[in-house]
Design brief:
Elements lengths: L1 E3 L7 E11 L9 E6 L21 E7 L5 E3 L2 E8 L5 E4 L5 E8 L11 E9 L1
Antiparallel strand pairs: 1-8, 2-6, 2-7, 2-9, 3-4, 3-8, 4-6, 5-6
Length: about 130
């Protein structure tokens, strides 16, 4: 996932929270963690593999989406998430305006057929 967050190249910003929306309506085991990086992470074990092998040098933090606050709607489901540690994630990019993410399922989640996830970061730009 790619998020354009900074207003200018090599800009800085603070992420306060995030919103996850998915096209499937089930909230059973819908606990997720969004891992954030300053450059596109290299995943060594492919899609649907366990999250374990990414580079720490570009990792800036994570946002948890708990199934306990997931809401089901007739056209999908939504979860608000907060940073895993602390109340904010402050980022100063070395270049560019983008942040990159990997979404990890934290429980025995079964995705709906062709389910799509959309994440919106709420950030204060410097």
């Amino acid at each position: 996932m790619t998020f354009t967050v900074a207003r200018i190249a090599a800009g800085s910003f603070t992420i306060r929270k995030a919103r996850l929306r998915k096209t499937g309506t089930s909230t059973t085991n819908a606990g997720f963690r969004l891992h954030l990086y300053t450059s596109s992470p290299t995943v060594t074990n492919g899609d649907n593999g366990a999250w374990l092998s990414t580079q720490s040098s570009t990792y800036v933090g994570a946002i948890d989406f708990s199934s306990s606050n997931a809401l089901a709607f007739s056209d999908g489901a939504g979860i608000n998430g907060a940073p895993l540690i602390g109340s904010d994630i402050s980022v100063k990019l070395a270049s560019g305006t983008s942040l990159f993410g990997l979404l990890e399922a934290r429980a025995a989640y079964t995705p709906a057929n062709a389910e799509q996830f959309t994440i919106t970061l709420e950030a204060f730009q410097d």
